[in-house]
Specification:
Layout: H1 2-11, H2 13-68, E1 72-77, E2 82-85, H3 87-93, H4 97-100, H5 105-108, E3 123-130, E4 136-147, E5 153-162, H6 164-209, H7 215-242, E6 250-253, H8 254-265, E7 274-278, E8 285-288, H9 290-306, E9 312-323, E10 326-338, H10 345-348, H11 366-376, E11 380-385, E12 391-398
Parallel strand pairs: 7-9
Antiparallel strand pairs: 1-2, 1-5, 3-4, 4-5, 6-8, 9-10, 10-12, 11-12
Helix pairs in contact: 1-2, 6-7, 7-11, 9-11
């Protein structure tokens, strides 16, 4: 207190009290400000922590989306090296995601051109991808530049989808529509031709049977009868193609049918130097029209034998599996492989169309009829061939009668 009195005597009591009040107020305001700043710091820390959690959640969601895409998603940097390589891309190429990282994109997909992404425009095109096994697949490719905050290109994002089966299905649908139109028009023409042809054949037969016809004319009339009979047979075959009967479905053993036909054809001169090797496995039971499938197998065996005039071998093999057009159903796949002359690439496109044939005297309706029969059974036929190295026809038939 003595010190207080001395100070108060020196400065005055009012000055001292004002000084004490000012310091107390300063301490109080400092405490309030410190508390406010501490609260702000705590709030900022919570907000930052929440944002970090949100970023982790966003990264996790993005990772799940990228990995479960039903298309190949690949990102590359400005040097064209892979950064993101999702599950679909790994399954498509057979390269693990870890192994693909930092590989040149052009090394994995040499046929895919990313040059168009440099002009800041989206690019869409189709490209061929050749797998390690040598199988060629058609890829639908979409690519776009990857940009930084300033809008500069730092790489590219590429989305790829295997559209091989889709393009094959489109080709089959186009072919089916074309064949249906041709068949309907041609059936009308064939029907109109058949009636006068029957009249010509009957008239010629009556003339030939009369006794007033010289022998030389009889030979000419015999030629007319033979050719009209051949035309009538061809028209019958064509009408069967143009206006097929709906299949009568029943269950039967395809193995027995193949064995029966193989034995029967051994007596045909076209099979004298041809060996039929049946490698099919039991059971081979299908729900189908017995007569139509018998005609299908007959045509395919005959077609194979005629491609080997100097002899050879026909291998018949089978396996069960899923078809691309109906993955939920089980199919029987039956292949006929010959060692004949093969089919040139230009003919592969039209091999199932009516009246297309490379054989002398052929009608060009055998394979067209096979195609129609399998189409009616909700099955399919495919051909693989190399000129001079033989041909393989593979048919598919659904095992279930629900198809």
């Amino acid at each position: 207190f003595a010190l207080f009195h001395d100070i108060s005597d020196l400065y005055g009591a009012n000055h001292v009290l004002a000084l004490i009040f000012t310091n107390l107020l300063a301490f109080f305001l400092t405490a309030i400000l410190t508390g406010f700043l501490a609260e702000r710091a705590r709030a900022s820390e919570k907000a930052l922590k929440k944002k970090e959690i949100d970023y982790e959640e966003l990264e996790s969601v993005n990772s799940i989306i990228v990995s479960t895409l039903d298309s190949g998603l690949v990102t590359v940097n400005s040097q064209g090296r892979v950064r993101v390589f999702n599950r679909y891309a790994a399954e498509l190429t057979g390269i693990e995601q870890q192994a693909a990282y930092d590989l040149p994109f052009s090394e994995i997909f040499p046929e895919v051109d990313l040059a168009k992404t440099g002009n800041l425009q989206d690019s869409r095109h189709e490209s061929i991808y050749k797998s390690k096994s040598g199988e060629k697949r058609i890829l639908g490719v979409k690519s776009a530049p990857l940009l930084d905050k300033e809008g500069h290109s730092i790489g590219a994002v590429v989305d790829m989808l295997d559209v091989t089966d889709l393009r094959a299905m489109e080709s089959r649908l186009k072919r089916a529509d074309r064949l249906a139109a041709i068949g309907e028009l041609s059936a009308r023409i064939a029907h109109e031709v058949r009636n006068p042809l029957a009249s010509i054949s009957g008239s010629v037969q009556l003339i030939a049977e009369s006794g007033a016809v010289p022998d030389a004319d009889k030979r000419l009339l015999a030629i007319i009868q033979r050719e009209t009979a051949r035309l009538d047979s061809m028209l019958s075959e064509f009408l069967q193609y143009a206006r097929p009967f709906p299949p009568v479905i029943r269950r039967f053993s395809l193995k027995n049918l193949i064995t029966e036909l193989s034995t029967l054809l051994q007596g045909d001169s076209r099979f004298s130097a041809v060996k039929i090797t049946d490698l099919t496995q039991e059971p081979l039971e299908v729900h189908a029209d017995h007569d139509q499938i018998r005609q299908t197998v007959w045509n395919l065996l005959l077609n194979a034998a005629e491609s080997m005039p100097d002899g050879g071998e026909i291998r018949i093999e089978s396996h069960l599996g899923k078809a691309a057009s109906a993955a939920e159903k089980d199919f029987l796949f039956l292949s006929f492989t010959d060692t004949g002359c093969g089919i040139d690439p230009a003919s592969m496109v039209t091999v199932f169309e009516p009246f297309f044939t490379t054989k002398q005297g052929g009608t060009g309706l055998g394979l067209a009829n096979v195609y129609r029969i399998l189409e009616a059974h909700k099955g399919s036929i495919a051909v693989e061939s190399q000129l001079g190295s033989g041909t393989r026809f593979t048919i598919s038939l659904p095992l279930s009668s629900e198809s």
